[in-house]
Amino acid sequence: MKLIISSVSGEPIYEQIKDQIRAAVLSGELAAGEALPSLRKLAKELRISVLTVTRAYNELADEGIVENIQGKGTFVMSQGTELMKRRARTRIQRIFGETCTAAKAADIPLLDLMAMLETSYKDQS
């Protein structure tokens, strides 16, 4: 797994790390039980503070995506992928609700809305 950090994106570095690790877990690039790079190793690779990496790893652990094992390292949790998928579904459902409310207010028919969704989905590939 290769992390790419941007100092000009405006997004905090620890958030960039979290987002990329989450994506790697969801895509299967990081499998359940797989170890993440050590705090010091990743901090050195990215030329950032160990505290920044620690914050990212701790927040991922709080979310149930990884597990910190004292003296051994940080590992992807087996249920991390399923938990992330459930949370993503919940978030998407909320966004769909807001989108449908806006579409109805703008008098956009359901078929047009579905076509817009399909176009957006295909554009992401």
TrEMBL record:
**Which InterPro entries does the UniProt record give?**
Tscrpt_reg_HTH_GntR, WH-like_DNA-bd_sf, WH_DNA-bd_sf
- Record's keyword annotation contains Kinase: no
Concerning SUPFAM superfamilies, the annotation shows:
Winged helix' DNA-binding domain (SSF46785)
Record key words, sorted: DNA-binding, Transcription, Transcription regulation
Q: Which residues form the HTH gntR-type domain?
A: 11-79
Asked whether the keyword Transcription regulation is assigned, the reply is yes
Coiled-coil boundaries = none
Q: Which SMART domains match?
A: HTH_GNTR (SM00345)
Q: Name one Pfam family in it.
A: GntR
Task: Name any one GO molecular function.
Answer: DNA binding
Indicate what this protein is called per its UniProt record.
GntR family transcriptional regulator
Q: What is the lineage of its organism?
A: Bacteria, Bacillati, Actinomycetota, Actinomycetes, Bifidobacteriales
